[in-house]
Amino acid sequence: MKKSARNIKFYIIVLLVGLISFSGTVVSSLPAHAKAAPESFAELADRLLPAVVNISTTQVIENRAPQEMPQFPPGSPFEDFFKEFFDRNQPNGQHNGQPGGRTQKRRATSLGSGFIIDYKSNGDTFIITNNHVVQDADEVTAILQDGTRLEAEIVGRDVKTDLAVLKVKSHKKLASVGFGSSDIARVGDWVLAIGNPFGLGGTVTAGIISARGRNINSGPYDNFIQTDASINRGNSGGPMFNMKGEVIGINTAIFSPSGGSIGIGFAIPSDAAKVIIDQLINSGQVSRGWLGVNIQEVTDPIAEALNMKKSIGALVSNVSDGSPAEEGGIKPRDVIIEFDGKEVSEMRNLPRMVAATAVNKKVKLKVWRDGKEKILSLKIGKLEEKVVEAMAKDNSKKTPVGELDVSRLGLTLSALTPDLAERFNILGDTKGVVVVDINPDGSGAEERIRPGDIIHEVNQQKVFTPKDVNKIVNKAASNKKKTVLLLVEGQSGFRFIAPKSN
Fold it and tell me: What pLDDT sits at residue 128?
């Protein structure tokens, strides 16, 4: 009996030790950095509100409105009445009720938000806002939390990132805020937005980061932070703060069918904005890096055709003459998978990486070429607004032949003739094989090939006749290749596509 009691006691001890160990394991597995929701944002709001300003803009709009006197029967009593009315209201001494026009001027006002930054300068105070808040404005006024109105001067604007820098003069030191790193902000982190929604001023809203890296098709460098903190009209240009009181975003846009907040707002990340802001303050304009390539997405069929294991990177469809890319040895069909030490996971990331790179900086690129990786070095150029759009073209000459139906692609092809060049408005020096007809059920139609498109290459081989195309396509099919890689030139420029070949 005593032995049984000892055994029971032993089992109870073992069970308790196991429970304690299991409990410790569960606790230790919880993230050490997980934070509870703040009890209040009051202290943070008190500290930050004085640095957030309302932006009021005024624009004088002129339009000439025709003023014609109604026609009445001769002798009508209304004729004299309206003649006197028009005589009184005609500008520049126009009288006698003659038909004419008046130049009408009206002052259109709009409201937005901004914030004062802690920037070391010669006594100047700088305010950050959106370009669309101050664009076309004749007068800009910054209104502080205490109601003080300061005339603001536009230092510089950048349309592509929708950023603007203003400058104000003040006899007293103004409250300011600093930037934090948006790159380390995570989805789920708490954020605070302060701004001037609907002209109400000094409005604080809170939420979390809902997503990162959003592309809303507002410009070539979209990389927005998405938040569910309420952002409405008038919040544009206002700051998004982390819980340290650092600016990690500039509130810019909302998605809303009604015009009001539905919990989907977007902010420009601070790490992208700082580069632009520094340039605007120092020079009043932005210089962006330039590579000189046309790129497109690497789809799964294209990745298979290029023997890539993953659909990543940016596929180069064309290289500009005299560009940094050409001088650095980049070629069409190269897939840029790494730029300046950073992976190019998606095609749309590359333009932003290049634009943010200092002009004349030497960088290394990793490209996928002919089934293997290759490292290239080049010097980044300066992006000009009027960059030459002429792209490298093949100058080889071949004798044209007639039409041919390439049934595996569902395309009817022809060598380029003067009649076809005129029919499809194709430049005279263009070489290649022209698409003249399409089977709507074929693989070419699925890849949106259109009549008038020019096929320059098939599986990285230049083609000059329909027979060239048919031969390469049939060979790929006999080798059990599911797709072929075409370099096609259409109305939108060069692009690679990978239609099915069997």
Answer: 96
162 counts as catalytic: yes
Instruction: Look up the CATH number of domain 190-283.
Output: 2.40.10.10
Annotate 459-471 with DSSP letters as a single string: TTEE--SHHHHHH
Per the residue annotation, which of 56, 110, 210, 236 is the catalytic one? 236
Tell me which architecture the domain covering 404-497 has in CATH.
Answer: Roll (2.30)
Location of each CATH 2.30.42.10 domain in the chain: 289-382, 404-497
278 is catalytic: no
Considering the candidates 56, 110, 158, 162, report the single residue annotated as catalytic.
Answer: 162
CA proximity to 272, closest of 221, 309, 327? 221
210 labelled catalytic: no
The residue annotated as part of the active site, out of 110, 132, 182, 261, is 132
Provide block-wise average pLDDT over 10 residues at a time, the chain (502 residues).
51 42 40 66 94 90 58 55 57 49 67 88 85 90 93 93 93 92 94 90 92 81 90 91 96 78 90 92 91 89 89 90 93 93 89 89 94 94 63 35 78 82 74 87 86 89 88 86 88 85 72
108-168: CATH topology is Thrombin, subunit H (2.40.10)
Report how far residue 119's alpha carbon sits from residue 126's, in angstroms, rounded to the nearest whole number: 7
Alpha helices in 294-448 (DSSP H): 300-305, 324-327, 349-355, 418-423, 443-446
Q: Output the CATH code of domain 289-382.
A: 2.30.42.10
